[in-house]
Amino acid sequence: MNGAAHRVRPLVVAALGGNALLHRGEPLSADVQQRNVAVAVKALAEVAMDCDLVITHGNGPQIGLLALQAAAEPSAGPYPLDVLGAESEGMIGYLLEQGLRNELPARNIATLLTQVVVDTDDPAFAVPTKPIGPVYTEADARRLAVERRWTVARDGDGFRRVVPSPEPRRIVELSTIRLLLDANVIVICAGGGGIPVVMEGNAGIRGVEAVIDKDLSAALLARQLAADALLMLTDVAGVARDWGTPHAQLISTATPDELSALVFAQGSMGPKVTAACRFVQNTGGRAGIGALAEAAAILRGDAGTTVRRVLHPAGADMSSRP
After folding, report:
1. At what angle do helices 214-224 and 269-283 cross, to 10 degrees?
2. Quick check: 166 and 216 in contact, CB under 8 A?
3. Which range marks the domain in which residue 288 is found?
4. Which residues are catalytic?
5. pTM for the full predicted model
6. How far apart are alpha carbons 3 and 11 in whole angstroms?
7. How many structural domains does the chain have?
8. What is the pLDDT of residues 172-219, one digit of tens each?
């Protein structure tokens, strides 16, 4: 175990993809999200039976919805993305915390609003790439881009609003997360990648217009907590070679070097592979990518894609499942 010396149980950081909580094409309703959260908490509760657990989550659909709701009252002006990010952390955290308390009534669970520092000169601010909100037709997306001064881009079969996604550099509430873990609390934090902020010397902390990639923040959090495993849980079975073709094969195990030699979609699997490789290379721990409902099996290495610094048996090539 590569965690803190005093830790008795393995520490797992589990990152829930936005599409795992709100599937593509589903209505952005509270009822739909609560049904999906019910599936999520059952999977997470199984992991928490044997491990200390920190949970992060995506917020792309939710923060986009909040932005649309805010825009419905023009006199209020556009709400900044950092404030909307904080709102989404509270909303999704509430649903997850309530569900986990029902599944694990003997455990203490806390949702923590989490600020994540980014660089003011990050080039991502000039090139928005992070999709948020609902999927639009091309005609509607182009119209909204003009009306609301959005940047839009293709996402699958449709178009979505895209916003800057700078690199996460530091987690402001890291010491608080450690205190909660030391008290045997399941922590829900860094939702949506965390609330994006910059440090301004004596002026302190200031929020910025961005949405941080949840997977990259999860990898940073897992590394700084010296976690034993990082799980990235989504709505697909794992990382696939030749994805989207008749020859697609699930990659069951791989090293960071092997995955880095392949190309993955930057809007979906790319950030997960990057986050997994960063965590494994920097810590020697292991990462798993796969379907949310199979979280415990992914942690055991029985499902999804496992990323290790060295594969077992030693020297084995990247292995696949059909």
Report:
1. 10
2. no
3. 11-117+170-321
4. 18-19, 130, 214, 272
5. 0.87
6. 7
7. 1
8. 999 999 999 999 999 999 999 999 999 987 888 999 989 899 999 999
